[in-house]
Write a structure and sequence with these properties.
four-stranded antiparallel β-sheet; 171 residues; alpha+beta; 4 helices; 7 strands
Length: 171
């Protein structure tokens, strides 16, 4: 992969929010070396040479804040094992866009009697049902699970992990 250095010279400063993938596709498709961006009322015009694209975005102030996770809320898990559990039930997820609650996998975390952390994942498309469970406790030398490590209430009750998130986790 070739890397490039990009020099940005802003005419004025401001902010907006644009979709990343379409923005990248537009910039890649412009054959010219000079690319200009003009933003007005959350509409960005990207041009270079004879090519011109328009993307509609949202105001930067409408972007939700990323929640800060305190270290006391962190739960140590083995991500490879968690990804394996989610991947093993992924093929049963519904492909039907109208059944949004079946377009992911249900995930629940629980402690067993020895304070090992287990993940239970379930997927269905309405015809097939897949269930998998495995210990996701980290190796003792990596980051030992403490007896006081509490599972967040949402994960203890179970959450639906969207198919897109599972695809990203299992890559």
């Amino acid at each position: 992969m070739k890397s490039k250095t990009i020099v940005i010279v802003p005419a004025r400063y401001g902010s907006t929010r644009l979709p990343a993938k379409p923005l990248l596709d537009c910039v890649k498709a412009i054959p010219a070396t000079d690319v200009s961006f003009r933003v007005s009322d959350n509409t960005a015009t990207i041009s270079g040479g004879t090519v011109c694209y328009t993307l509609t975005g949202l105001g930067a102030d409408e972007y939700p804040e990323i929640p800060q996770v305190r270290e006391s809320e962190a739960l140590p898990v083995d991500l490879v094992k968690l990804a394996k559990v989610l991947a093993s039930v992924r093929y049963c997820q519904s492909k039907d866009e109208t059944r949004y609650n079946l377009r992911g996998s249900w995930l629940k975390l629980e402690h067993d009697t020895e304070s090992d952390l287990f993940a239970l994942a379930v997927s269905t498309d309405g015809h097939r049902l897949c269930i998998d469970t495995d210990s996701i406790s980290p190796a003792a030398d990596d980051m030992p699970l403490q007896a006081h490590d509490e599972i967040p209430a949402a994960l203890a009750a179970g959450v639906i992990v969207p198919a897109k998130a599972i695809d990203l986790i299992t890559r």
